[in-house]
Request: fold
Amino acid sequence: MPDTPAPGPQAPTPDPAAPTPEPAAPMPEVVTLDLDDDGFLTHPDHGGPVHGRALPGVLDSALHIPRTTTDIVVFAHGWRTPPDQALSGTRRLAADSERLLARNHPGKLYPALPEHHGAYWIAVRWKSEAGYRKARARAHSAATQGHAADVLTALLGYFDRHRTKPAGAEVWQNAAGQYLHCVGHSFGGRFLCQAVQEAGPDRAAKHVWYGPVRRDPRYPHTVDSLLVFQMAARPDVFAPGGTFAPLLADAPISGPVTLTHSGRDRATGLAHLLAERRRGIGTVGVRRGEDVHRVDLHAPEVPYTEQDLKHALVNVDASKLFRGDFWSATGGHSDIWHPHSAHLLLSLMDHAREAVRG
Reply:
């Protein structure tokens, strides 16, 4: 009589109390655009700088945005970020966003986002590996003298050339009703603010603007939101006479400028204090009198209300979450990679549509 085979490994009995795993979400595509030391776009084939009239053609070759795309996100990294980390950080924020959408949509958190939401991510990588003062100067000069603003202008023009006007819309968004969101971290936020601002009045013939908060008929297409995590800049840069005051008055942006801060951010605390004699926005928030709305960073399951985001400037206090390691020299400055950050971005995407409808 043959031996009875030994029983094989048994599948574990499902635990009815165990949480249901989150649904899988497809990884969004992330395309990189690299800038050189002076802020010129580098050619993807030979690495040389791309100038002036050559920009649109290079962008046409580099960007292939599907017509099914609903939102385009341009991300600019912060200080001392190697290119591979800049790309991985963008991918992480993209993945967190997709996971939240898969878990919460359709639902009450982002009611205005379309059911078949599709984001296209662009990582703008600039030369950030330098000392504090040099990085600050490079972020400024790359946007003003080095034609980074021309890169952004060309991006906006690219979207406009490939746009079809949404049926029934009184304003023009980007291609097929796509929305454009700029997201930056640290000096990357400073870089984007400068670039958007420089892309304004002198380039109005190419450019964009409409807005629930502000409206300017010279700009038929626009940046729909600008979100900066832990910005490396003085808290008064948006005040009248400040470096970025024109961003709120005469630039191709329609939605709010939203900025996070944390009292545990040592990079924009001590380092910024030594370099600019004041702690930076990333530590104390932006200061502009009564024009600044203040709100705490929300957990992913807590919705932002229209009143939270319907302002030109929004201060988001992330002190309870952006804390970093106790022994870290920069503290909570780079501790931004949480679902809460993706939730804030998705809420701004949602708000852009609610504002247009309203």
